[in-house]
What we know:
The complex is a heterodimer of chains A (474) and B (161).
Chain A: E1 5-7, E2 13-15, E3 25-27, H1 42-49, E4 55-69, E5 71-80, E6 86-87, E7 99-108, H2 109-112, H3 116-126, H4 142-158, H5 164-168, H6 186-192, E8 205-214, H7 217-223, E9 229-236, H8 239-256, E10 272-273, H9 277-312, E11 317-323, E12 325-334, E13 337-346, E14 349-350, H10 361-364, E15 369-372, E16 380-384, E17 394-395, H11 405-411, H12 414-423, E18 427-430, H13 433-436, H14 447-456, E19 461-473
Parallel strand pairs in A: 3-4, 18-19
Antiparallel strand pairs in A: 1-2, 2-3, 4-5, 5-13, 6-10, 7-9, 7-11, 8-9, 8-19, 12-13, 14-17, 15-16, 16-19
Chain B: H1 12-15, E1 28-32, E2 38-44, H2 47-60, E3 63-64, E4 71-78, H3 83-101, E5 103-113, E6 116-125, E7 130-131, E8 138-149, E9 152-160
Antiparallel strand pairs in B: 1-2, 2-9, 3-7, 4-6, 5-6, 8-9
Amino acid sequence: xxxxxxxxxxxxxxxxxxxxxxxxxxxxxxxxxxxxxxxxxxxxxxxxxxxxxxxxxxxxxxxxxxxxxxxxxxxxxxxxxxxxxxxxxxxxxxxxxxxxxxxxxxxxxxxxxxxxxxxxxxxxxxxxxxxxxxxxxxxxxxxxxxxxxxxxxxxxxxxxxxxxxxxxxxxxxxxxxxxxxxxxxxxxxxxxxxxxxxxxxxxxxxxxxxxxxxxxxxxxxxxxxxxxxxxxxxxxxxxxxxxxxxxxxxxxxxxxxxxxxxxxxxxxxxxxxxxxxxxxxxxxxxxxxxxxxxxxxxxxxxxxxxxxxxxxxxxxxxxxxxxxxxxxxxxxxxxxxxxxxxxxxxxxxxxxxxxxxxxxxxxxxxxxxxxxxxxxxxxxxxxxxxxxxxxxxxxxxxxxxxxxxxxxxxxxxxxxxxxxxxxxxxxxxxxxxxxxxxxxxxxxxxxxxxxxxxxxxxxxxxxxxxxxxxxxxx
Amino acid sequence: xxxxxxxxxxxxxxxxxxxxxxxxxxxxxxxxxxxxxxxxxxxxxxxxxxxxxxxxxxxxxxxxxxxxxxxxxxxxxxxxxxxxxxxxxxxxxxxxxxxxxxxxxxxxxxxxxxxxxxxxxxxxxxxxxxxxxxxxxxxxxxxxxxxxxxxxxxxxxxxxx
Lengths: 474, 161
């Protein structure tokens, strides 16, 4: 499919609606954040998503857009359920409910510095990550895995892995309703059984950070943030279980979508009407994987909190936990009325505006916290949802890759990366230095530019900037 | 069964501009750039050897297995609707066994059977491996290709990491 991209002011581009596209594409990024690697297909993928049956308003791309499969990473698309709108597992991604949680410590960076090496060593030995390291939670058997699929972080807290307050600070209060473990295949269960409480590899991490700058004092105070405060950010998802569910349901939808008269330009966009047997089956399995992901992050956070308690005398408080790979049935304005839409966010964070009913009381006035991890050598941001967000209350989810893993190996080395991070005062405990090269800061877009573009496009407001002190990578 | 380390040390596939490939060498594999994930290309005289090369390419992208690891033999028969999907199913089998059983292949052979293929893995415990890259978790259908050309068979596949 040929695409035609036109400038729409200094902060965004429009992909004109042509051919099989049902809506235009809207790329919420200035020119310097557009993909520029030879052969990159991210913008083509924005146009492909615009062909999905039932899509409304536009196929959106966040400022951190980069090349994915089917959907771009940083893609947002909403389909109207009543109009035969579809759900596409590729619009959620393999790592279902991959997301970020941020916890605040009771110590500032100056006080922590002399204890940081010991804390990093403790976490290094504690947190499973990388190839074949198992999980923190040794389940008693399949029935307990089923409980996790139904109860998510709520079940983990009930079992002693956290406190009740944690659940107030989780999207969906720690568990997605309507999870249907019967739609989760045996292979997914086999893969998930030994991985609850593990980071995985690639861009997933546990990072000790400090608040470097506060942009909105009132909001930061409500979020529990102040300059110098130490925080812990955790980024991971539903591990092998979520990936297997995605693969299984893409295959199932690919087998039946022609029966629904659906044709897609990329097999990874396989889809079925939300209101169909296949659509409902995927939604039930997706919710189960989302609960697994929330339990996974809950276990990791609980372990980190215990390590902080032992070494600093106080634990960690959860600020918020939010996914950036998920589809949700939400009500939004459409054609002059409110309509039930299936909002796909693939590498995009839900960003509820101030006053939204789904926010906990303590946060409602300020909007939903949005976390934008940068890189292990630069910075991460806390943003909050803002009003007037046309992308169905969605925001960016990270810096967004700009180099291939191939190029990262070509242009940097272990020695160079170690030198660079040591110079920046960042303590790194990787599972593999050769693997961590692929996550070199230069492999990502400038996260400062990404959040600036997000703010200019009304996707969210800046609250605070965090800098890394210590990084655990898989 | 003797073990053989299929992962070349120091990942020359990532460091050196390719001078081999379809048309240059009868069989082999390499990784090619993809912004977020991992893309593997493989080639061989037959469809089955090409699939086996893709397995070697995938495993070699993230794990070095010791040559003296103790191994076990595993065997399965897989089928799919077309050649590309057959490649996907074999690669998914490797990922599944890695996650569920903690095993990684140090060698693999793929042979034709009527309507499907038989895959024989020589498996080592994944805990003996040195991680050298991001660990694959799924096989994407985006950009998938396994087809015969003038030089034999060639494939391209994207792996989620």
